[in-house]
Every structure is written in C-alpha cells, then in structure tokens.
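thread: overnight batch results

M.L. [08:02]
morning all. the overnight job finished for the chain we discussed friday. pasting input first so we're all looking at the same thing
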Amino acid sequence: MSTSVRPKTKFRHSRLSARNREWIAGYLFVLPDALGLLVFLGLPMLLSLVLGLYDVDGFGAYRFVGMANYTKMMRDPLFWQSAKVTALYALMLVPLLYVCGLSLALLVQKTNRFNGVIRSMFFAPHMVSLIVVALVWQFLVVDKIGVLSRLTPALGLGGISFLGDPDYALFTVVAVSVWFLMGYYMLIFLGGLQDIPAMYYEAATMDGAGPIAKFWYITLPLLKPTSFFVIMIFMVAAVAGSQAFDIIWVMTGGGPANSTSVLIVYIYQQAFSFGAFGYAAAMASILVISLMAMTGLMFLLTRGGRFSYE
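M.L. [08:03]
and the structure it wrote out:
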C-alpha cells in the first residue's frame, strides 16, 4: 500500500506582495500628518460646529440656543457686508497673484547667476513677518506723512487717502498682499515650468511657432496641475489665510466704514472684541463649509487639474 507524500514547500502561505507593502509604507508615512490634521484641524472644526449652537460668554457659561446664532447671522447686515468684502478681496487677489506669479516665473525661468539674484529679491518679502510688512506699508501710505501719500500730489493725482478712504482702502490692501505673496508663488510656478520637457519647445520652434503660440499651446496646458494647486492655495489664502487677517488688521483694522472687514476679521472682532464666541463659531463654521464647497466644485470642474489628452 503506497501512500502519496505531498512535497514540502517552503512558503505555503503567500506573503504580502510588493504593492501591498508599498501601500502600507505609504500610509505609515502619511499617518503622522493625518493625525495632526485630525487633532489640530478636524476636531476644532467639529467643536466649532457644536459651539455655534451655544451662547458663550467667555467666562465658562454655555447656554444652548439651537440655530439662533445662524438666524442672527442671516439678519446681520455687517455679516453680509463682510462676505461681500471677502468676495471682492478674493476676486481681485486670485487673478492678480496668478498673473504676477506666473509672469515673474517666466521672467526668471532661465538658470543663471543674474536670475538667481532676481529670484532672491522677489522672494525676500516673504521671509519678513507679516506684521512688519503691514507696519512698513502703513507707514508708507499713511495720510500726509507717508512717502506714497506725498508723491500723489506731485503726480497731479491730488491728496489720496490710501487707508482712510473706503474707495481706496481695499485696493491698497490687495496691492500689499500681492507684493508680499507673488515671490512665493513665483517659485511654485518656476517648479512647474522646469518640469515641462524642453523637447516640446524645440519641436514647436522647428514648426515655426512663436513665443505666444508656445505659451498658449504648450506652457499653459502643461501647467494645469500647478495652476490648479496654486489657485486652490490662492483661494484659501484670500478667504482665510494669515495675510487676509494680519495685513488687514494691522493696516486698517477692518475700516474705514468696514470697507476692508473680511469675514475672518469680523469673526475675530465678534469673538475677542465683543465676547460673542458662539456667534463667531457659527460664522467660522459657515466660512469653513463654504471653502470646502468651493474646493469640491473646483475639483469637479477641473478634474483636479488633470491633463486632457483628447
């Protein structure tokens, strides 16, 4: 009677495949950042949503008011004024930053010693504290004694109050924000430009294409992922970024006549000037939800900045 013996195999059970190991390693690398986002962003956002349902006096007293803060928000003319100013600020800042950042990147695209110095000069303002930047520009444009305020009569423009006139204050803040940020976004665009293979431009040159045709049909299409990322960062920075608060708060405090009071400034005033923490939390929740909705809409409309090969 013969018994069949099953041949021994070293590895009866298959181990993790190389792809699965890569996935696990990737998730482990992402885990610290994910935990940080959850603890320092996710939980505060959730607490803000909950806090918006309470009336908080800042001394430990919480009174549940349901949707009263949100109802108050809908009837608050200053909230709608701040929302309008925020929209205007973003609509001016985002296109200007895109054009200035991309133009500077194209200007210093070639790598040489001279362009290296120019890049450093354009990026230098971003290395200075926002508070210092705001104070310096406030000194430059302040009425009567500011350098720029003294130049306008000499140029025949009359006495322009850059920060005291509601018609000019927001434009002044936007100009300072663009000056401060364009060097940083220049570097991001520069990275995108340097990733475009030179062979495309060489082929276009052989076909007789000029600089405008190369920019329109090669540079802009191949910059879609970079442009998508930059516009997303622009939008968040314009609505809730540090310069949207720091520069405006130091230079104008939201004035004159609430002409520069963006939502993040109005939220700060309600929370720390008037002690309306519950109302401020409700507005902050609406601001975050609006940003998430705009981000999702941009992803849907642009497919996340992906290339189109059709």
